[in-house]
Write a structure and sequence with these properties.
By secondary structure, the protein is an alpha+beta fold. The chain has nine helices and 15 strands. The protein has two domains: about 150 residues, Serine Threonine Protein Phosphatase 5, Tetratricopeptide repeat (Alpha Horseshoe); about 230 residues, monomeric porin ompg (Porin, Beta Barrel), CATH 2.40.160.40. A hairpin with a 7-residue loop joins strand 5 and strand 6.
Length: about 400
């Protein structure tokens, strides 16, 4: 009974508020009929229309005032607000740039331009405008809006550390988890099945995965892996362990462990991240030691990552130790509506090489290099699909492909 009464009261309140908005709009239109050029009345009408979601109609009211009074800041703010809510991000950016040439210290113009850039998938460009909006904020309202937007930008960049440094009410780093299922094939005889789980709570991330490799549709090798990452300040530390066992007694069982760290620097519209890593693998007949040194550069159009790895193979056989180098390059480009295209290349002494994605080349005398391409597309707000195709550096007929599905909460 109490629940029904509460729902009834909420419904009555909603109807009352809606009636108030309608009555306000009616009163404003009646007043404008008597005084059609009154800027205050038109700005109030624009605000009422924005509250009702009638963004195009509100835009007309704001533009009417702005065209007749080029110094009316409130009209220009409303115009940019309407353009953002209409999804007219390019128009909003053009108008904001024009207004900023006349009012270079107006916080709201930076704010709306930053919001338009963020929604266009340009967080690094948006970051600079959000910082300017925060710097020039004339009151606590615009300071809060700019800070909240800046927190969202850092979260979209994966920079939870800087997002958490902002005021608590602005930062809302989400906790959540994701699961993934993969199926792949290498030639016609090798098939791969995998299941993964990842959980993130603010600055901490944990992952678990299992993998089954089939040869001619029969069990050949399985793998179990766990990973962890933690952010301290601007540093991200990550670690992982992996256990593989299978039918080839010359390879398995195989245990592997890795440690890595990276730090991000902002240089205007660019993120630079130096990468360091160390890996150990203990196999049935040899141990491998690997050191990584790399660099990741991120801009709004693309991300580029290079890693150089030194490997030392400590073999059981006398005077059989070996050493070598591997060079790996990744390039990813965002496409429309959350889609992403990425290219991969690697070349060198790949035996027992551990890559940046937690994989290990568990084979003697493997192919000396590879070329790969992947395509990711979201499927709704919580799911996505990734397809990956890889071929040998020397022989394009030696291929490997897999499809991975994601579900995120």
């Amino acid at each position: 009974m109490r629940r029904n009464l509460a729902l009834f009261l909420i419904s009555c309140l909603s109807v009352a508020l809606w009636a108030q908005v309608v009555s306000n709009e009616t009163a404003l239109r009646q007043a404008l009929a008597q005084n059609p050029v009154n800027p205050e009345l038109r700005l109030l009408l624009g605000w009422e229309l924005m509250q009702k979601g009638q963004y195009a109609a509100a835009l007309q009211e704001y533009r009417y005032v702005a065209e007749r009074d080029s110094l009316n800041i409130e009209a220009k703010k409303g115009l940019l607000w309407a353009l953002v809510e209409m999804g007219e991000y390019s128009r909003c950016r053009r108008e904001a740039t024009l207004y900023l040439s006349l009012h270079p210290q107006q916080s709201a113009f930076y704010y709306y331009r930053a919001m338009a850039k963020l929604r266009q998938g340009k967080p690094l460009n948006a970051r600079l405008d959000a910082l300017s909006a925060q710097k020039y904020a004339s009151d606590s309202l615009w300071e809060h809006l700019a800070t909240s937007l800046l927190a969202n930008i850092y979260q979209s960049l994966g920079d939870i550390s800087r997002a958490d440094k902002l005021p608590e009410q602005a930062s809302s780093a989400a906790a959540g988890y994701s699961t993934s299922i993969s199926a792949g094939m290498k030639s016609n005889s090798l098939k791969l099945l995998a299941l993964g789980f990842e959980s993130q709570i603010k600055r901490s991330k944990l992952g678990l995965g299992i993998e089954e490799l089939l040869y001619e549709n029969k069990h050949y090798r399985y793998a179990i892996q766990a990973s962890a990452a933690q952010v301290w300040g601007g540093w991200e530390l990550n670690s992982g362990v992996k256990y593989l066992d299978g039918k080839d007694a010359s390879l398995y069982p195989l245990q592997a462990a890795s440690l890595g760290m990276k730090h991000r620097f902002y240089l205007g519209k660019i993120i630079v991240q130096p990468l360091l890593g160390a890996h150990l693998a203990k196999g049935a007949r040899q141990n491998s030691y690997q050191a990584d040194l790399g660099m990741k550069i991120s801009t709004d159009p693309l991300k580029l990552s290079y890693t150089g790895s030194y490997l030392y193979l400590d073999r059981d056989a006398i005077s059989a130790d070996a050493q070598g180098w591997v060079n790996a390059l990744d390039i990813s480009v965002p496409l429309c509506k959350g889609k992403e295209l990425a290219l991969y290349a690697g070349r060198g002494d790949m035996e027992f090489y551990q890559n940046a994605y937690g994989g290990i080349m568990d084979a003697y005398q493997p192919e000396p290099g590879f070329l790969g391409i992947s395509f990711y597309t979201p499927l709704g707000s919580k799911t996505g699909l990734l397809g990956y195709l890889q071929c040998s550096w020397k022989d394009a007929g030696t291929y490997y492909f897999y499809v991975k599905g994601f579900y995120r909460v």
